[in-house]
Design brief:
Elements: E1 2-5, E2 8-11, E3 17-21, H1 30-43, E4 47-52, H2 55-58, H3 81-88, H4 92-104, E5 108-113, H5 116-125, E6 130-132, H6 140-147, E7 153-156, H7 162-174, E8 180-185, H8 200-207, E9 212-217, H9 223-230, E10 235-239, H10 257-274, E11 294-297, E12 312-315, H11 326-329, E13 342-343
Parallel strand pairs: 3-4, 3-10, 4-5, 6-7, 7-8, 8-9, 9-10
Antiparallel strand pairs: 1-2, 11-12, 11-13
Helix pairs in contact: 1-4, 1-10, 6-7, 9-10
Length: 349
């Protein structure tokens, strides 16, 4: 299957589509947001992704039970949900200048909507693709709203059982989504390589054979996404910031510009290296044949002599008889004058 997003082909036969996720790493500065777009373009990313919500469209300002983040291992410990989303949201009036900046630099700009009003707003901006975040992937009203736009959809699959994924895919399909990408995702921040389970990617591709698969990755570094490309991922999403030391809600597990550039380079190398099933000697290898071993005469021999371990050796270069014949040549009569350093061939005995 192949899908087209703003004239960029995505599918098994095409290089990976790399998404730089800005999230809240703008730290409430439009200038910083625009600088992130510039850095993503310079690093070679294909797309920049935003998140479209407000604290009020996400939750209510309550401070009891699960509204409070009381987890010392969490990056967001000590906030309630409302406070977190106030810090992390991208002001809606910023979307247009950010997206225009991206367009000017050749990037595809899109977003994750978190409620129906965000979808309506993004439709006004003319986005060409939608992202469904893991936490929203079972929100059927939202899935229906997004699917009804008829745009391609990229959906992360964190925090879901296989049955949930199948159900959500059906909802999207039944309401107008024809082009769909599923991203393997582990919804911990940061994520550990040991819980990333990339082998799910080819399995997912087999189960949903009319869907493109990829990876939304929260591990540190680029090892996991490069490996994912080798396993069939053709869309890679990574959080992105100018510098982790600047802080921000997602900065701790975000790539910096040089790392994103390395991801683009290495993911494309991994894709190119997949190639096809190939045996035998390729044209590119022909010059290297000289470094294989072959049977050589290593002492002068004369007609009537016999070949022995003293006058024959298996050495480099590789233009003599293959080494597999060496043992059978011992004791054979020499048919002609042969100088030391001559590759042995069938005319010599």
């Amino acid at each position: 299957m192949t899908i087209n997003i703003a004239d960029r082909q995505i599918g098994a036969a095409y290089r990976p589509f790399i998404i730089a996720e800005m999230s809240g790493n703008h730290n409430q500065s439009l200038d910083r947001a625009l600088a992130i777009v510039e850095a993503a373009a310079e690093a070679g990313a294909d797309a920049i992704k935003l998140q479209t919500y407000t604290a009020d469209t996400m939750t209510i300002n309550a401070r009891h039970g699960l509204f409070n983040i009381d987890d010392k291992s969490s990056l967001w410990n000590g906030n309630n949900l409302y406070e977190l989303y106030q810090k992390a949201y991208t002001p809606w009036e910023w979307h247009k200048p950010i997206m225009q900046k991206a367009k000017d630099l050749g990037l595809i700009a899109f977003s994750s909507p978190f409620d129906a009003s965000a979808v309506d707003f993004l439709e006004e901006l003319g986005v060409e693709v939608y992202k469904i975040a893991s936490f929203e992937n079972t929100d059927h009203p939202l899935l229906k709203k997004v699917a009804q736009t008829g745009k391609p959809v990229i959906m992360s699959t964190g925090l879901t059982r296989l049955a949930d994924i199948d159900e959500s895919v059906r909802v999207l399909r039944e309401h107008g989504c024809k082009e769909l990408v599923l991203l393997k995702c582990t919804s911990t921040y940061p994520a550990s390589p040991s819980t990333t389970n990339l082998m799910t990617i080819p399995h997912m591709a087999q189960l949903f054979d009319d869907i493109i698969v990829g990876l939304s990755d929260h591990t540190m570094g680029i090892g996991a996404p490069v490996a994912a490309v080798a396993l069939g991922a053709r869309v890679i999403e990574k959080h992105f910031t100018l510098s982790r030391s600047d802080g921000g809600v997602d900065s701790a597990f975000s790539l910096e510009p040089q790392e994103l550039k390395s991801l683009v380079v290495e993911a494309n190398r991994a894709f190119e290296a997949l190639g096809k099933v190939q045996y035998g000697i390729q044209s590119a290898e022909q010059k290297s044949k000289r470094f294989k071993r072959s049977v050589y005469v290593v002492k002068d021999v004369h007609p009537g002599d016999t070949f022995s371990i003293d006058n024959l050796r298996v050495i480099r270069p590789g233009d003599g008889l293959p080494p597999k014949y060496f043992e059978g040549l011992i004791g054979k009569a020499v048919a002609t004058e042969i100088k030391a350093g001559t590759p042995l061939n069938w005319t010599h005995f």
